[in-house]
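Class prep. Sample record?

___
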Amino acid sequence: MFKFLRKNNKVLPDFWNSYVATLAIPTAQELDKISFVVLDTETTGFDYEKDRMLCIGALQLVNQTIEIKKGFEIYIHQDVYKKESAKIHGILKNEAVTKVSELEALKVFLNYLGNNVIVAHHAYFDITMINRALARHGMPPLKNKNIDTSNLYKKTLIKSNLITRKSQYSLDELADKYNISKKDRHTAIGDAYITAILFLKILTKLKDKKGIRLKDLLN
């Protein structure tokens, strides 16, 4: 059982308060000093109200190096399940993997996340799914700074009347563009790894522009 504390007339668990405490640590602005968490969620669908997370995968990126050994992957038990989405993420309802409750998954994930800057492809979706899960357990939304690699890619495009920018770029599309292997595509940890490599490749292009700092990358 989690020990709960009352704060501002809301009952919040200790692990949430510990997470918030990490945010008091200032975030560096120089890219080689920033610690990122690149994440992805696999879900039962795209409806923020009705669908649920099945898995959260994440990797730490420090000094522009992917910390493979510090990878994070957790499977979540859900009563909500859709056979049609299983064709994409491949997570079976009775799959022989250890699954935890949504609340336990949030506890472990927040401890892993800390005050790191979040990186995700179409970050709004993953962050919103996590925030909805937090809300179901009476907690506020995530407070981390975040970067969307789809939006970040647009910063590499030369402004020209000859180039039409799309509103969004899929992970498959950009992985192909940068010759990134899609071997483990549509697994949470696999997509986090693809996104991490994509992020580093985009940063390499942006470094040609002098003076790039964290504030230039944020959503």
In short: DSSP finds seven helices and eight strands in the chain.
